[in-house]
């Protein structure tokens, strides 16, 4: 297959079912964990400096660039620029804003935004959209407001917030106008959701040709086929809906900063509508878990996207213990390296990773850590941070670098994973280190 954003998805990207389901590998997981997961301070410092050096080495753009005239810190996956990668890079670049020009990286997307608020999730080095507008494959998790607040938490630059707030409002409205259903939930595309090869459609579903058809702008580069590519408006996604609720909460916070209190009522009402819809339609009380919807019925697939309800503060407190029991269950998400992106008891789970069929990713782990903090789950957050950080350190000791993702059932890189990835994996040695390890 031809490729672009995540070329390592390989044939799993086109498959209606997973390819790596190996139940016998559960024996690899230690269920009674007495490891303290301490990492020597000297190694912590080395990892921090190495990650910073890699991120600095990936800075590109400048006066000689035909499109991006200011230097910016890059996801460094390819010559394209990537929306949600950049937003998560902000989570650690916030601590080094003079060395890592993250503001310029965010501004690249604002400068390419259409008049109606559309921002493509990926642009070529020429500044052209990689994906056709009007199909959700062109949209990434709407995290620009989150990224701006990450930077503001350190810089306290009110002028920056005043500049970006109108742009963020317009981008929010584009999402609402194009991807929100009458049930107040949002639909998306598997690749657009950022979790490229996680199956989002109901089991045994066949294409009914009611999805939004996709126009491939770059068939010479990339082929997107299979059932995921035609499953979009037939369903609703918990992660996208929670992310939009989170977007509204972020806009409320920014509106307070820039003295635009008149907007707060609207975003508060939107947040409540979305939160209520997720809890009424996507919560399964028998299972104690949230599920996506397909044709108004729950799709019982367990993947990491459901944990966005933590960061968005969607889940009521009385439901929290049962929900978190799935997170900490070694037969589901809490594997040798937590957190697996596809639950281990799901068809298609890959012990080696299989990209999003199980691999452990820095952005989703960081999302969960920040969400656990919202609910004062400090013990679970500390346990997750230490075990994950330790595993990344162990692989670093052996390979001398950081990886795009890690294997859930081995202390190793994922089987489809780029090296020197800082990139969003810089979250681990910098942001997680600062916020959860060295406290």
What does this 3D model show about the protein?
The protein is mainly alpha-helical. The protein has a single domain, classed as Glycosyltransferase, CATH 1.50.10.10. It has helices at residues 41-57, 83-93, 102-111, 144-155, 158-179, 238-257, 264-281, 308-311, 320-327, 362-374, 378-399, 428-437; strands at 81-82, 122-123, 235-236, 283-284, 289-290, 292-294, 297-299. The strands form 3 sheets. A 3-stranded antiparallel beta sheet has the order 3-6-7. It has a two-stranded antiparallel sheet with strand order 1-2. Strands 4-5 form a two-stranded antiparallel ribbon. Strand 6 (292-294) and strand 7 form a beta hairpin. Helix 6 (238-257) runs antiparallel to helix 7, helix 10 (362-374) runs antiparallel to helix 11 and helix 11 runs antiparallel to helix 12. It is globular. It starts with 40 loop residues before the first helix and ends with a helix. Residues 1-32 have low confidence and may be disordered.
Describe how the helices and strands are arranged.
Layout: H1 41-57, E1 81-82, H2 83-93, H3 102-111, E2 122-123, H4 144-155, H5 158-179, E3 235-236, H6 238-257, H7 264-281, E4 283-284, E5 289-290, E6 292-294, E7 297-299, H8 308-311, H9 320-327, H10 362-374, H11 378-399, H12 428-437
Antiparallel strand pairs: 1-2, 3-6, 4-5, 6-7
């Amino acid at each position: 297959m031809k490729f672009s954003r995540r070329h390592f998805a390989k044939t799993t990207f086109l498959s209606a079912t997973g390819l790596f389901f190996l139940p016998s590998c559960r024996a690899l997981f230690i269920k009674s964990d007495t490891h303290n997961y301490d990492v020597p301070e000297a190694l912590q410092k080395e990892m921090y400096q190495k990650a910073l050096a890699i991120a600095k080495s990936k800075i590109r753009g400048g006066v000689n660039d035909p499109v991006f005239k200011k230097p910016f810190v890059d996801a460094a996956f390819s010559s394209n620029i990537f929306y949600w990668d950049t937003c998560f890079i902000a989570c650690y670049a916030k601590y080094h804003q003079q060395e890592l020009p993250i503001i310029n990286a965010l501004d690249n997307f604002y400068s390419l935004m259409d008049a109606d608020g559309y921002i493509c999730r990926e642009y070529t080095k020429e500044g052209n959209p990689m994906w056709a507008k009007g199909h959700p494959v062109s949209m990434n998790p709407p995290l620009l407001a989150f990224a701006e607040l990450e930077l503001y938490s350190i810089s306290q630059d009110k002028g920056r917030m005043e500049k970006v707030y109108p742009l963020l409002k317009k981008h929010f409205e584009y999402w609402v106008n194009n991807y929100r259903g009458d049930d107040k939930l949002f639909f998306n595309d598997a690749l657009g959701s950022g979790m490229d090869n996680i199956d989002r459609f109901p089991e045994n579903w066949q294409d009914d040709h009611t999805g939004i058809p996709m126009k491939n702008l770059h068939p010479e580069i990339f082929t997107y086929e299979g059932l995921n590519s035609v499953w979009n408006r037939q369903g609703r996604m918990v992660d996208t809906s929670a992310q939009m609720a989170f977007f509204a909460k972020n806009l409320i916070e920014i509106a307070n900063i820039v003295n635009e209190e008149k907007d707060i009522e609207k975003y508060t009402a939107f947040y409540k509508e979305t939160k209520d819809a997720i809890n009424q339609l996507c919560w399964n009380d028998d299972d104690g878990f949230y599920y996506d919807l397909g044709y108004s019925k729950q799709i019982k697939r367990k993947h990491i996207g459901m944990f966005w309800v933590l960061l968005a503060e969607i889940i009521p407190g009385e439901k929290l213990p049962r929900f978190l029991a799935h997170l900490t269950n070694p037969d589901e998400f809490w594997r040798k390296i937590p957190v697996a992106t596809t639950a281990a008891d799901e068809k298609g789970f890959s012990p080696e990773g299989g990209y999003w069929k199980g691999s452990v990713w820095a952005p989703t782990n960081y999302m969960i850590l920040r969400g656990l903090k919202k609910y004062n789950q400090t013990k679970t957050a500390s346990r997750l941070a230490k075990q994950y950080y330790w595993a990344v350190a162990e692989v670093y000791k052996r390979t001398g670098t950081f990886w795009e993702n890690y294997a859930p059932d081995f202390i190793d890189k994922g089987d489809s994973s780029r090296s020197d990835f800082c990139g969003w994996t810089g979250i681990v040695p910098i942001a997680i280190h600062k916020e959860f390890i060295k406290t």
